[in-house]
Amino acid sequence: MSEIKLVIGNKRYSSWSLRGWLALKTSGIKFEEVLVPLYRETSHAELKIANPLAPPKVPSLKIRDKAIWDTLAICEFAAEQATEVALWPTDTFVRAHARSVVAEMHSSFMALRDYIPMDLSKKISYGQLPGDVESDILRIFEIWRGCRSRYAGAGPFLFGELSLADIFFAPVAVRLYSHSVPLDEVCQSYFDTLWALPEFQDWRAAAEQEEWVIGNANEYTVQ
Ligand SMILES: N[C@@H](CCC(=O)N[C@@H](CS)C(=O)NCC(=O)O)C(=O)O
Q: What residue segments make up the domains of the chain, in order of their start?
């Protein structure tokens, strides 16, 4: 049993869990996954048992008698502990650019998050979205195009090699996919790269197997 435990929510729905999990997986750190299904009466109590020193949110890390919570702190821990890969770009200014993108993702895009929650079981055809949601999406495309035009020579991800910036956009890719949001050539190519990340494929495959489903009326059922 690993002494590092990552507490996550439903793979189908928990966008922040996906980020923390991808950061740990791609870092190569060995960890044990503890999945607590969210939005049930007992969820908060179960989260407290899984990681007593963290708030009852996911993701959180439990390392012996220590807790690390909030996705950004967990991702920074993964980047610091990774020995085989660099989850931040090595160049100072490129790294600062990547951190700007990650910080913007962490603190913004509320309209997109509220209107299109992550749901890996959902796929509907595209329809006109509210203006503030469209504005969030246009800003995301602006970030993607800006990074791809600057760093395409270094690799297929936003900053060339895979970085935490890509990991932060993984749940956004799910949101765009589930509402069939049209992408231009540059954004589609980046989306395809992100979607094909093996660890992301593993997460989606596990989400498909989950038995907890939130229905149309927001009721929570077990299949
Ligand atoms: N800013 C936090 C957000 C964590 C968060 O809100 N997680 C959601 C799931 S994606 C959660 O735990 N919801 C369960 C609840 O609030 O009961 C982070 O970055 O980790």
A: 4-83, 92-201
Q: How far apart are CA 54 and CA 31, in angstroms?
A: 17
- Which of 16, 102, 116 gets mutated to test ligand 1 (max ligand atoms within 8 A of its CB)? 16
> What is the CATH number that goes with domain 92-201?
1.20.1050.10
> Using CA positions, which residue lies closest to atom 11 of ligand 1?
57
Does 58 contact ligand 1 (Cβ within 6 A)? yes
90-136: pLDDT as tens digits = 999 999 999 999 999 999 999 999 999 999 999 999 999 999 999 99
101 and 168 Cβ atoms separated by less than 8 Å: yes
Residue 216 has pLDDT above 90, yes or no: no
- Ligand 1 mean position, distance from CA 59 (Å): 7
| Gap from CA of 56 to ligand 1 centroid (Å) | 8
pLDDT band at 5 (very low <50, low <70, confident <90, very high): very high
58's tokens: 């996911």
**How much is the pLDDT for 218?**
63
CATH architecture of 4-83: 3-Layer(aba) Sandwich (3.40)
Please report the pLDDT score of residue 212 as a whole number.
87
